[in-house]
Write a structure and sequence with these properties.
This protein starts with a helix and ends with a strand. By secondary structure, the protein is an alpha/beta fold. The protein has 18 helices and 24 strands. Helices cover 42% and strands 21% of the residues. It folds into 2 domains: 3-271 and 475-494, Aldehyde Dehydrogenase, Chain A, domain 1; 276-465, Aldehyde Dehydrogenase, Chain A, domain 2, CATH 3.40.309.
Length: 499
């Protein structure tokens, strides 16, 4: 498909934004990178270039950190009362809502996801997150403590912002992930340097325009598009940054930890997953079949919690796999800006090669392709929704995160919940899992046994701003969303007063 066909579906506002200059956002100003370098942005359904974006590197990070430090230490932000911070965050949420259709089109154009999903899930979730976290700005409190030491004492704690934070977000939910990072940081009183993924920088730069319009003081939020090995690495290692938050692959997360060790900055990580979907024989198939299909094929499988390992009891295995295959066959795959599209392309050529490479490896290792298994067309980065059967735990498709619309179906014949849980837990990851059964006793017993940060019962891929999100094992450190996210961006100070 020629990119002009896709661009013709853009509204006037999104077209105007795309045609503009895409610069760094530092100290409330749009500026070129100091090096003058740019990088190309590609539209996933055609594979063609649609924009050039300024490429930040270490020199630009230095400038942004200095601006963020001024804002945190001496600027208006440092003197702003919590209610005023919350008011600015709510104003930003209102501006996002007012421009929601444009933002959804930009997100769909940049990432490839269906525009209808982008409008409801990505943009809607972004609005909800900023509003939820705005409420926390006035609810961050310490506590009084009665110590056991002799004498008269007044002992209390203070919760204070951690300082200047670096935030590196992924390409699968670009704007939503930005809100997950910026929301709690702003509520806590921190200042931020946000680096969007190089594959999907556009919605973050449109967000920067809205941040400017909302009236945030200079330096509070700085947005630096750039490459991971330059801008991302500089943020992770910078001695002037007090905390780094990263969402992305486990491999890159480990590099972030190493880079952050220079000044022992605080680190929070939301990393990969290989989430099991465990289906018991008493399941309601009318819910489980579309639920399992949506759990893996939503967002083209480019979801850290994607239900990529389907464990089903032998009594229902064949029927379940046939049902999920039928669901896959019905899915409309196409350009994200086509309103009829249900699954868009993968985000990039690199991701296309990764996913098709895993499918080929599965075939070589003896897996059977039940449905899908191929690239779609010659243009763009489309892959068929794919089910692999006859897999075993030694295969890379079962062990490793594919991050595409590929599910491995594995039967079990057991009633021992401990054994079932051991198989579901046999992974280096622990981000999420779902349990499908009409027996609530089994559901809650299994929920206790699964080693994952989120366990869903008779559903998959559900999140809410009020509910903590994060992983066990190599799926990350810390919890995002809810009041737990505030903990990531605050320090606790203990005060002893002798009376």
């Amino acid at each position: 498909m020629d990119v002009s066909t896709t661009l013709s579906r853009l509204g006037n506002a999104a077209s105007s934004f795309l045609a503009g200059k895409h610069q760094l956002f530092i100290d409330n100003q749009f500026v070129d990178a100091k090096s003058g370098k740019t990088f190309d942005v590609f539209e996933p359904s055609s594979g063609q270039m649609i924009a050039k974006v300024a490429a930040a590197d270490a020199a630009d990070v230095d400038v942004a950190v200095a601006a963020a430090r001024r804002a945190f230490e001496t600027g208006p932000w440092s003197k702003m009362v919590p209610a005023e911070r919350g008011k600015l965050m709510n104003k930003l949420a209102d501006l996002i809502e007012a421009n929601a259709d444009e933002l959804a089109q930009i997100e769909s154009l940049d990432n490839g996801k269906p525009v209808t999903f982008a409008r409801f899930i990505d943009i809607g979730g972004t609005i909800d997150m900023f509003r939820y976290m705005a409420g926390w700005a006035t609810r961050i409190n310490g506590e009084t403590i009665t110590p056991s030491i002799p004498g008269d004492w007044h002992v209390y704690t203070l919760r204070e912002p951690v300082g200047v934070v670096g935030q590196i977000v992924p390409w699968n939910f670009p704007l939503a992930m930005a809100s997950w990072k910026l929301g709690p940081a702003l509520a806590a009183g921190c200042t931020a340097i946000l680096k969007p993924a190089e594959q999907t920088p556009l919605s973050a730069l449109r967000l920067a325009q809205l941040i400017q319009e909302a009236g945030f003081p200079p330096g509070v939020i700085n947005i630096l598009p750039g490459l991971g090995e330059t801008a991302g690495a500089a943020i992770a290692a910078h001695p002037g940054i007090d905390k780094v938050a990263f969402t992305g692959s486990t491999e890159v997360g480990k590099l972030i930890v190493q880079a952050a060790s220079g000044n022992l900055k605080k680190v929070s990580l939301e990393l990969g997953g290989k989430s099991p979907v465990v289906v018991f024989p008493d399941v309601d198939m009318a819910r489980a079949i579309p639920g399992a299909a949506n759990g893996i094929f939503f967002n083209s499988g480019q979801v850290c919690t994607a239900g990529s390992r389907l464990y089903a009891h032998k009594k229902v295995f064949d029927r379940l796999v046939e049902g999920v295959a039928a669901e896959a066959a019905k899915i409309k795959v196409g350009p994200g800006l086509d309103p009829a599209t249900q699954i868009g392309p993968l985000v990039s050529q690199e991701q296309l090669e990764r996913v098709t490479g895993y499918i080929a490896a599965g075939r070589r290792d003896g897996a059977t392709v039940v449905t899908g298994g191929k690239r779609l067309g010659d243009d763009g980065y489309f892959v068929q929704p794919t089910i692999l059967a006859d897999t075993n735990p030694n295969m890379s498709v079962v062990r490793e995160e594919i991050f595409g619309p590929v599910i491995c179906a594995i039967p079990f014949d057991d009633d021992d919940l401990d054994r079932i849980a051991r198989e579901a837990n046999a992974t280096s990851y622990g981000l999420a899992a779902s349990i499908w059964t009409t027996n609530l006793g089994i559901a809650h017993k299994m929920a206790k046994r699964i080693k994952a940060g989120s366990v869903w019962i008779n559903t998959h891929n559900m999140v809410d701003p009020a509910v903590p999100f994060g992983g066990y094992k190599q799926s990350g450190w810390g919890r995002e969303m809810s009041h737990n996210a505030i903990d990531l961006y605050t320090e606790t100070k203990s005060v002893f007063a002798s009376l």
